[in-house]
Amino acid sequence: SPAGMELALQPASPRAVPGGSGLFGWLRGRCLGRSAAVDPARDTFGAMTGLYGSIQPADSVYLSTRTHGAVFNLEYSPDGSVLTVACEQTEVLLFDPISSKHIKTLSEAHEDCVNNIRFLDNRLFATCSDDTTIALWDLRKLNTKVCTLHGHTSWVKNIEYDTNTRLLVTSGFDGNVIIWDTNRCTEDGCPHKKFFHTRFLMRMRLTPDCSKMLISTSSGYLLILHDLDLNKSLEVGSYPILRARRTASSS
Question: Would you call 111 exposed, middle or buried from its count of C-beta atoms within 10 A (0-12, 13-18, 19+)?
């Protein structure tokens, strides 16, 4: 566990655990929704166990892989109304996650496999591909892309989005992390700049508050960029590079 943190499992006493004693009784009680604070005689306990007991697994969604190949990524829209699927054979699939209904297939979303999908809001989403491009899409008009973004020179593997600045962040096997200004998008693309470059780059992620960027490499390292400012660029030396810590990963 992380330094300074310790997780201890302390089972309740047998008297406090309905229907059993000791650790196994406590665990079974947890699975059934029981605790020392829940009295089995109360009406709420019966309602609660009935609710959880009625939950059944959903039927699997079966699609032939002859057209779309392997599934590389999944992404929900922020409001949960659409599930998007990135596929090996140039396709993006869209589903209604409630009914499991297949809504639409973007059969030629890219010219190579689709690696990642990221929603910008409830209607706009971005896809990236081994064809070195990023595409922006609008759920209201899926017959054509909003625009195609060119800037990477190799496979594009990751997309991140900062909702505060509306900046799109992508990384690829060319070692580049590129920033795209979606505030100024046109049919020809978005203004962009190279934010960072490192050899052997594999994947890039932003923390939920976008204060840090984490980069993994094929040489076994994690790069952590602290106090992140996406409006600056490491390429032009305006970013405090000494705040980046290179830490060897451990098994």
Answer: exposed
Distance CA 110, CA 134 (A): 9
Tokens (6 digits) for 207: 């923390």
pLDDT tens digits for range 162-192: 988 999 999 999 999 999 999 888 888 889 9
* pLDDT band at residue 246 under the 50/70/90 scheme: low
Residue labelled with tokens 């106090």? 227
Question: CA torsion, points 84, 89, 91, 93, in degrees to nearest 10?
Answer: -40
pLDDT value, residue 109? 93
pTM higher than 0.85 for the full model?
no
- Please determine, for residue 123, whether its predicted confidence score (pLDDT) is greater than 80: yes
Task: Please compute Rg for the chain using Cα positions.
Answer: 23
Residues of the chain with CATH 2.130.10.10: 67-248
**Exposed, middle or buried by CB within 10 Å (0-12, 13-18, 19+), for 152?**
buried
Q: Which fold has domain 67-248?
A: Methylamine Dehydrogenase; Chain H (2.130.10)
What tokens does 192 get?
């962009």
* Secondary structure of residue 185 in the 3-state scheme: coil
